[in-house]
Specification:
Largest sheet: none
CATH topology: Helix Hairpins
Order of helices and strands: HHHH
Helix content: 55-70%
CATH architecture: Orthogonal Bundle
Radius of gyration: 16 Å
Shape: globular
Distance between the termini: 38 Å
Number of strands: 0
Structural class: mainly alpha
Number of domains: 1
Bound molecules: magnesium ion
Oligomer: single chain
CATH class: Mainly Alpha
Number of helices: 4
Strand content: under 5%
Length: 103
Amino acid sequence: MVEPIGLNQKMLDVRAMTDAKGFSADSARIWEMLALIHTEVSEATDAYKKGEPMEHVGEELIDATIRILHLLSALDLDAEALFQAKMKKNWERPYKYNTVRGG
Ligand SMILES: [Mg+2]
């Protein structure tokens, strides 16, 4: 059981909702859950491309966030610890790390 702080609290909220609504977090669904994260990012891309209101673009990005938190829960990971560790790592990187073009 993860400590219910920061991102873990959101992950636990998502898990409670997805369990209540009948969306399994069984390991057999991991591939499906990964694919569904892509669908939400694609929906956000399409909404942005079509000039839809930014609230709609944001809603699709929140859908992606919810699906990511659901997957992190299914994988039994500590989302807050991973988030803090990755942010620390990213802060320690140089300006425009590993970027020659774009970004
Ligand atoms: Mg959506």
